[in-house]
Design goal:
This protein is an alpha/beta fold. It contains 17 helices and 18 strands. It is about 30% helix and about 10% strand. The strands form six sheets. An eight-stranded mixed sheet has the order 1-7-6-8-9-10-11-5, with helices on both faces. Strands 2-3 form a two-stranded antiparallel ribbon. The chain has a two-stranded parallel sheet with strand order 4-16. Bound molecules: pyridoxal-5'-phosphate. Pyridoxal-5'-phosphate binds next to helix 7.
């Protein structure tokens, strides 16, 4: 990462500790160096050091010999910043889920102004849509049936964009077809789902145990809120599955202690937005207390701090999604703005009359409307990959739709309305074979699963910070370097230029070219902290735990008389959509709210897919890693009460 600090102004080492959890170090020498630095920094008397047979070298030059007394003892498994020469760990060798210091404020901070425990952690137009009528009942478009071609009228034509013809169908649905798919039976117990595999056994001889992150035999470290993540996930070896302590994780989220209508809050509206861990909240506060400045401009200390913090956040995103370089990461307001940016820059440059853009029937409005607008402007055609009745993409239809006219395929990785996971690797590979560019909407995938844009092969990937436990108003466009370089700017102004005369302007290379004006600096930094947080938990741990929640909730929900699950794909993430006999979705949402349970009830900004399934709205509980089976039980018992009231 580029450091933007003016030379000769290196601040003293920060007294604020942050955590560096290295799960997969590159080689033994580096491990030894890190471990040595760690032990050198341990307060004397820390158990276990001698037993490990690692000589504790003296502190590296320039590093503090002792910790500030306010911090007390350093819990097992924490590595204070300043005690590990992070510069000696090449960025390229830091594994994807290693814990970064990228958004850790490493600047000097007056101790007095940072109270102990509050230091930031580590840091259709209907007339235009010729296929499935938006209000068509379920089955109106049979699987494998006519492919919905979407043509868009000239922009500005007097056609309403998405009003369904006729009265909306009722969302009160009979119980005739309660879901009976085989995947609901033979459910393993949650313990089976969540516990480490039996054959994990002791670590293989010679396998790195990373003892400095945890000593299994050592007494539990004192609980210290500054190191809460270590309490949540006990790292052992990178190939093991650490148990996931959801109760420790919940302590990181202050809002989860709220009471709503006299009940403890149950937040099941994670697909709309997620709650924020304390580390994110404090990181943003820290930014405004110690770093706030505009970036890239002034040669003063705070400009250097804010620029460093902002660029570290970009580095965190780069690492998190497996991009090749930070130059491929553009900060935007969110997934919606990201898709609009792509449509307005790449799209306007490359899309011509007669070209085809391919989306899927699962898309959020954010991945429909910008393409309708572009098609209206250019005379291109929007085509739609159909789904089956379970909400799964019909891949044969996709293959059939691709042609040399296809210029762009833009598909979500996880449906926000149904939870369907789409086969993005295959989608991108086929798009490329057809000569098209591929955009993946990752708004609903990044919170739940590890993403590697290079492995997916996507040319573009977008997501929103607020769905990833970060702040609102910040999001990301990943663009393959080659594709980005070829794109014109979409907004002009400060920051994005390299030189301006009254006659012409020269633009920055990406990503600056696409970040005109003053960006959302503080929230970008907050997003970096959110990424640090989920990486510390481990995306694989998160996926595994959430899968357990989904497996726990699905059969219990399906068994409630009158409930019909909507979206029953074999491969799903964290979303359960349903309707219930005798109730409008909104009524169910309100009844749950009375018990402090927040779910979304409505069309979820994905009207085409709900209408494809014969509905205008559903109730949508969506889970995150801080939810529990007890919370699911609370929802189920309230729904059972509603079901009994109908009979
Ligand atoms: C799949 C998907 N794409 C895009 C978006 C738009 O995200 P934002 O409103 O944060 O821009 C959402 C939001 O729910 C979504 O679920």
């Amino acid at each position: 990462m580029t450091t933007h600090r003016p030379t000769g102004s290196e601040p003293p080492a920060s007294p604020i500790p942050a955590e560096t959890t290295v799960l997969n170090l590159p080689d033994e020498a580096t491990i030894n160096r890190l471990a040595g630095a760690f032990f050198a920094a341990l307060p004397s008397g820390m158990p276990g050091v001698a037993a490990l047979g690692v000589a504790a070298p003296s502190s590296p030059a320039g590093l503090p010999d002792t910790f500030p007394s306010a911090l007390g003892s350093v819990p097992t498994g924490s590595v204070p910043v300043g005690s590990v020469p992070t510069s000696s760990v090449p960025t390229s060798s830091v594994p994807t889920r290693s814990v970064p210091t990228s958004s850790v404020p490493t600047r000097s901070v007056p101790t007095s102004s940072v109270p102990t425990g509050s230091a930031p952690q580590s840091s259709s137009a209907p007339g235009a849509v010729s296929a499935p009528r938006s209000s068509a009942p379920q089955g109106a478009v049979p699987p494998g049936g006519p492919t919905p071609d979407v043509t868009v009228p000239a922009w500005g034509a007097d056609v309403p964009m998405s009003t369904p013809s006729g009265p909306p169908p009722t969302s009160t649905v009979r119980n005739a077809d309660i879901h009976t798919d085989p995947f609901l039976v033979g459910l393993p117990s949650l313990e089976q789902v969540l516990s480490p595999p039996r054959d994990a056994g002791p670590p293989a001889v010679g396998a790195p145990e990373f003892y400095f992150l945890e000593r299994p035999q050592a007494p539990a470290a004192p609980v210290n809120s500054q190191f809460y993540f270590l309490d949540a996930v006990r790292h052992r070896a990178p190939d093991r599955h650490p148990p996931f302590d959801v109760h420790a994780v919940r302590n990181d989220f202050p809002i989860l202690s709220e009471r709503v209508n006299g009940h403890p809050l149950v937040w099941f509206d994670n697909a709309a937005t997620t709650q924020k861990p304390r580390s994110v909240i404090e990181r943003i506060a820290y930014f405004y207390e110690h770093e706030n400045s505009n970036i890239h401009r002034a040669a003063h200390e705070l400009a250097a701090r804010s620029t460093d913090a902002y660029e570290r956040a970009r580095d965190a995103v780069t690492r998190f999604i497996g991009a090749s370089s930070a130059q491929e990461i553009v900060f935007v307001r969110g997934a919606t703005e990201g898709i609009n940016l792509i449509a307005q820059t790449w799209g306007r440059k490359h899309i011509r009359e007669g070209d085809e853009i391919l989306i899927s029937h699962l898309e959020h409005h954010a991945n429909i409307v910008p393409w309708q607008m572009l098609c209206a402007e250019t005379g291109a055609l929007l085509k739609v990959i159909p789904v089956d009745d379970r909400g799964q993409l019909l891949m044969d239809e996709y293959t059939r739709l691709l042609s040399d006219r296809t210029k762009l395929v833009s598909v979500t990785q996880v449906s926000n309305a149904l939870g369907t996971i789409t086969p993005v690797h295959e989608i991108v590979a086929q798009a490329h074979r057809a000569g098209a560019i591929a955009l993946i909407d990752g708004a609903q995938s990044v919170p739940h699963t590890a993403v590697d844009v290079r492995s997916i092969g996507a040319d573009f990937f977008v997501f929103s910070g607020h769905k990833l436990f970060g702040p609102t108003g910040i999001g990301v466009v990943y663009g393959n370097a080659e594709v980005l370089r070829d794109m014109p700017p979409w907004q002009g102004g400060g920051n994005m230029i390299s030189d301006v005369t009254l006659e012409r302007s020269l633009f920055q290379p990406p990503p600056g070219r696409f970040e005109a004006g003053t960006g959302n600096i503080a929230d970008a930094v907050g997003l970096g902290a959110a990424i640090d947080y989920v990486e510390r938990l481990g995306m694989d741990n998160i996926s595994r735990y959430e899968h357990g929640l989904l497996e726990y909730a699905t059969p219990r929900l399906a068994a409630i008389p009158g409930v019909r699950l909507v979206g029953t794909a074999a491969d799903k993430a964290s979303v359960l959509s349903f309707v219930m006999d005798g109730y409008e979705p909104l009524e169910v949402g309100k009844a749950l709210n009375e018990k402090g349970i927040a779910v979304r009830a409505g069309h979820h900004c994905a009207q085409p897919i709900l209408r494809r399934l014969g509905l205008e709205a559903t109730v949508r509980p969506s889970f995150a890693f801080y939810n529990t089976c007890e919370e699911i039980d609370r929802m189920i018992s309230e729904l059972e009460r509603l079901a009994r009231a109908v009979r």
